[in-house]
Amino acid sequence: MTHDFLSPLTGSFAMPAAENPTVAMIEAAFRHHGLNWRYINVEVAPDALGDAVRGARAMGWRGFNCSIPHKVAVIQHLDGLGESARLIGAVNTIVRRGDQLIGENTDGKGFVKALQAVTDPRGKSVVLFGAGGAARAVAVEMALAGAARITVVNRSAARGQEVARLLSENTPATAEYAPWEGMFRIPAGTDIVIHATSIGLFPDVDGLPDIDLETLHPGMVVADGIHNPPLTRLLKAATARGCVTADGLGMLVNQGVIGIKYWTGIDADAGVMRQALIDLKL
Ligand code: NDP
What we know:
By secondary structure, the protein is α/β, with parallel strands linked by helices. It is built from nine helices and twelve strands. A six-stranded mixed beta sheet has the order 2-1-3-5-6-4, with helices on both faces.
């Protein structure tokens, strides 16, 4: 009988790393699909990132995720970037293609894949709250997925304007910045409302973005990037107003599905991965 005790390796470099549940979700998929692969969650300090990437190269890792604070800094250690990672200016997934390590960004791709379960972004009018790393990734992928119009609403005007300009200059979407001063009223004609700030993230579970909930209407889709807790106050309010919703757990799971596809070529079962996260009772 032949044996194969050599597992293909993937993992994550971040700091802090202990609270990151991705390993549970990815390894559940590996087990479910009978893959003898491993995902190793590693804490890497900023000044050790170069050595960590060289180590991954030396050990033939098939790929890895990068999270805070490495998403921008890792780029200098890579051999190339995918299209949206280049536009976003940040990488969260590294894929080995031949001898090269290529940076991709699955934050926004995972969001769009989860959203597509409830609506098609093509031709839609979108209001997006936030202009941080997650919002930027979501904005670029929504534009590349065919959203017609994206209004970026953000507390800091400079960051919001920069995301709107990025979209206008690099994608076919029409984009504009709208200031977030007081309660924001969703304009009539909006199809999709996306919340991508950190308001409502554990432990801020009572957080609710300052949106006039009376301006949410049935027929609108409301999506939240917060995955912990998955059912945010915003999504509860949106459901009560008759809106269709998409939660941040779907974004997180689909990001993992896309990463596994990049690394292994298989289409992982999203249901198994979502259940693995729910079982953690975060
Ligand atoms: P950043 O720190 O880069 O950006 C934070 C954003 O939230 C900025 O737009 C900031 O506005 C805004 N913000 C924070 N506090 C407030 C406030 N009190 N009022 C108004 N705006 C506020 O974070 P990320 O973009 O990386 O992450 C944002 C969220 O997305 C996090 O909660 C994270 O958990 C979630 N996320 C979820 C993922 C998933 O898979 N589900 C993946 C990645 C992220 P300003 O510019 O004015 O500071």
